[in-house]
Amino acid sequence: MSSCFAHVAVSFAHVELCWILKLLSSSASCGYILVVVSVYVNGKFCKDPKLATPDDFSFLGLNIPRNTSNPDGSTVTFVNVAQIAGLNTLGVSLVSIDYAPYGQIQPHTHPRASEILVVQEGTLYVGFVTSNPENKLFTKILNKGDVFVFPIGLIHFQFNIGKTNAVAFAGLSSQNPGVITIANAVLGSDPPINPDVLARRIRMW
Ligand SMILES: *[C@@H]1O[C@H](CO)[C@@H](O)[C@H](O)[C@H]1NC(C)=O
Predict the structure, then answer these.
(1) DSSP class of 56
(2) Where would you find the membrane-spanning parts of this chain (predicted)?
(3) Which of 27, 108, 113, 187 has the fewest C-beta atoms lying within 10 Å of its C-beta?
């Protein structure tokens, strides 16, 4: 088995313990101590590979439509290292997204992942904006079976422009992509950003 469950866990433990042991005694055996230590990688506990089960690598039920009765008219189901422990260190994850008619995923960015999205049902208007100084908007209308890529870090969105529900799946190039929703971060922070900081930019528009 690869990933956190095997080599990485062992090598991390080995490195950390060897350093500690070298401080305590130059003759200590690093290999012996490995057995008793809990190791975390990327903030997630590394399970003893002997105790891993198929459930550490699976998630069931993405076929079940999610409830989209919320202000955005969409629901994201995350399938990342928080749901599948075995994804730790593997650098991939998944989301499925249900959209009510005219539902949207508002502008957001994933600080640690590029995203590749495929529409399974419905019609989506999708896009992303490049960075300064161009801030160029790239958009596309996608139907069932169509694919679009959102490069790492760029602000992107999806909007169901059809009159029916839509469903999409997306692969992400991190086991823990992170999400920054632009409006939440800029206008909804806790505590709020000093309005003077925001007002100057808004006046310039
Ligand atoms: C969907 O969510 C809304 C809002 O939380 C709730 O009122 C409604 O009962 C839910 N519908 C179903 C079918 O669960």
Answers:
(1) G
(2) 20-41
(3) 27
